[in-house]
Description:
By secondary structure, the protein is α/β, with parallel strands linked by helices. Helix content is 60%, strand content 11%. The protein is built from 7 helices and 5 strands. The protein has helices at 11-22, 34-44, 60-68, 88-91, 109-132, 138-165, 171-208, and strands at residues 3-7, 27-31, 48-51, 78-82, 101-104. The protein has a 5-stranded parallel beta sheet, with helices on both faces. α5 packs antiparallel against α6.
Amino acid sequence: MAKILVVDDDPKIIFLAKKILKSSGHSVIGASGGKEGIKKLKSARPDLVLLDIMMPDMDGWETLRMIRGSKGFEEVPVAMLTAISLGPDTLKRREVDELIDYIQKPFTKGSLTKKVNEILEALEEVDRTGSQMKGTGPEKLAEYREIVKKELLHENLLATLRENLKTQPRPYEAEITKEAISSEQEKLQELVARREEIERSIADKASME
């Protein structure tokens, strides 16, 4: 199973996440804020980071930028685990594309376990697919892997937005969420088109060999 780093300033969230994820066989390390999270990231080298946004010493977005700027951790999977509802303002942040998922609190044992396992299984599939693409140049392979990860992210963002739409109390807020869904669908379609283009070029090259 995976080694998971949970970064949150609320000790109750860390305790609960540890209890839930350990029961699924995962190893869990807690960090009480962004600065401690960076230290534990470098010492523990986790397979996945669950990162809160609202923290006093260094918020989740700043922590994410520091993770991406840390040598050797540029590609460690990071999912936000936050009480901040996903909306257009969040989606506009350039850091969003550095995530693998956006998980909203509150969570249940079932919902958190399901989310984490889905992320880990999807990442394993990305690795398997990459290892099977023999003869592919390193640049194209890197692009392919990045596209597949972004596909996963935007599929997850779409699913979260659709869930949020079900509970929007005001027509104006619902309309904004619908626009965000439309924008995410366009991004996803572009990613799928590019991935399929790469797959065709790889298949064509293989057929000529």
